[in-house]
Design brief:
- By secondary structure, this protein is mainly alpha-helical.
- Helix content is 78%, strand content 0%.
């Protein structure tokens, strides 16, 4: 399979994960990350045994950083899904490539062209338009979404750094390596100390229906992460990043049919501005890359 196929599979699997998380939004985000981590580890182990791969990898420092950034990004993203219309939460998360490009200036020593900053500004204007005209998008959760996208951008840069040294499943594995103890200890502390500021993160014991959705969520996330990693690490990754934005169509459809979410013209304009800014940046970067190879 090529990079486009990897990203299409990843986008569809991510969209199903979004649907699952939204449907059980009453479960704390950190608990969902905990369950997602348990499932991920159970799925990774057979792969490592079959392929005879060392799960701890080679560049442990960067792998741990990828795990930490990914854990923070996903936990915050789950919070936005629970408290915002699905398409709005997903669209804000799609700002991550802009943060990826920004942090690449420092982490990958990559230069950012002047036009790219224009596209970045266009995407951020879209967020403010979406926030200003959609009363369901609270400033707090829009801010949490932006922070989530920024940590995702950091995580993607670390994924790129691991391209030459790690199997994609090892990169995926380091998410639960960090997230499982982090969220587990968080909930143990919360149950023991019961601080008032963390009342919204009290452990929720899922019923059988919840567990079924959680299992589907975990499997879809594992598939999505694996193929996204392969897509990012493929030689054509810079050419196929626009494919992932088909996820916005999935999010709009799921929100409309499953959660009675609708969008007026102004809110859709904000979503389109975000996508336009991000996609123009990706296409422009691809053009610059092709020019350098000529």
């Amino acid at each position: 399979m090529n990079g486009v196929t990897f990203m299409l599979l990843s986008s569809f699997a991510f969209s199903l994960m979004h649907l699952c998380v939204k449907s059980i939004g009453y479960i704390p985000a950190t608990e969902l990350v905990f369950w997602r981590s348990v499932i991920s580890i159970l799925l990774c182990i057979p792969y490592f045994i079959k392929k005879k791969i060392n799960p701890w990898g080679n560049n442990k420092k960067v792998l741990l950083l990828r795990g930490i950034m990914g854990t923070i990004a996903l936990s915050l993203f789950f919070i936005t899904i629970a408290h915002m219309p699905l398409a709005s939460a997903v669209t804000i998360q799609y700002l991550s490539p802009i943060f990826t490009a920004f942090f690449a200036i420092f982490l990958m020593r990559e230069k950012t062209d002047g036009w790219q900053w224009v596209f970045f500004l266009l995407a951020f204007i879209g967020v403010f338009v979406m926030k200003g005209f959609d009363n369901r998008v609270e400033g707090l959760y829009a801010g949490i979404g932006l922070i989530s996208a920024s940590f995702a951008g950091l995580a993607y840069n670390f994924v790129r750094k691991l391209k030459e040294t790690e199997d994609p499943m090892v990169v995926v594995f380091y998410f639960p390596v960090v997230a499982l103890p982090a969220t587990g200890l968080f909930h143990l502390y919360n149950e023991w100390a019961q601080p008032e500021m963390l009342n919204n993160f009290q452990w929720y014991t899922p019923n059988l229906s919840d567990l079924g959705i959680i299992i589907v969520m975990g499997i879809c996330t594992q598939i999505a992460q694996f193929y996204m990693t392969k897509g990012i690490q493929s030689d054509k990754a810079g050419n196929i990043m626009t494919v992932k934005y088909v996820g916005t169509v999935f999010a709009l459809s799921y929100g409309y049919f499953f959660f009675d979410e609708s969008y007026d013209f102004k809110s859709l304009t904000g979503i389109l501005l975000v996508l336009l800014g991000v996609i123009l940046n990706v296409l422009y970067k691809r053009r610059l890359t092709k020019a350098k190879t000529l």
